[in-house]
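Q: Structure tokens for this one, please.
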Amino acid sequence: MITNSLRGTGVALVTPFRSNGSIDYPALKRIVEHSINGGTDFLVALGTTAETPTLTAEEKKLVVDTILEVNQGRLPIVLGAGGNDTATVIRQLKELPQSGIDAILSVAPYYNKPNQTGLFHHFEAIANESPLPVIIYNVPGRTGSNIEAETTLKLAHQFPNIIATKEASGNFNQIMAILRERPDGFLVLSGDDALTLPLMALGVDGVISVIANILPKQMSRMVSLMNKQVLPEAQQLHFEMLPLIGLIFQEGSPAGIKAALRCQGLSEQWVRLPLVPVSEQLESKIHIALDKI
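A: Here is the predicted structure, written as tokens:
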């Protein structure tokens, strides 16, 4: 059952670029292998961290093909398939790869700012059309709209193929309401690296993580310990990673995590406009924090 495979650490993979703006596919292969070897439970392709809105349709296909080639079926793969036009998202679903993808991650519509009825019907349409299980992605800080607990629960109870939510609202009361009333088997995944440990103490099942691009072993170990209710060692790992987590988001994501990847020789720091690389001062702090870990 796919939900069992997603109870743990997923890595929100970056898309590495060269200085000329082209995709660095060898670097992508290194990062995927680094994540797998680090013990992550599943891979997430073409999410927010991948700078997906800046990729062409051909680039998106090549990115997915590259991840599938490296993975060779070793880990489940979740594919980002979302947007602010429901009809376009449904067309994306009809173009999914024939094999190798285990679920989709669909972000709440951005910019349009739909109300709760609109959000419900958006995900209802996706659930009715998707050939794969669906993970809802709630990230109000990026979309401008919040999927309230009542809406998430209504979707979870009415559509068996909506199997999880990635919650990046930072709203503990909302997340606790989902945890309290969710149907059996419905997963709640953290969308905030820094909040993963306290959320898992409340019953959250895992994380879709940015920091796992560079620290897959540490994040995966912490999540595994929390799922086993081994708190002291998990707390130690949490506090070891916390300064670096703060730094990689200080000037925006994924610029921060790409600076960390550059420090470790896994890829370069380049992002696509409108994003820009982090400042030299911040990159130096990231390097120092990495050395401490």
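A few notes: Residues 110 and 142 are 7 Å apart (CA to CA). The chain has 13 helices and eight strands.
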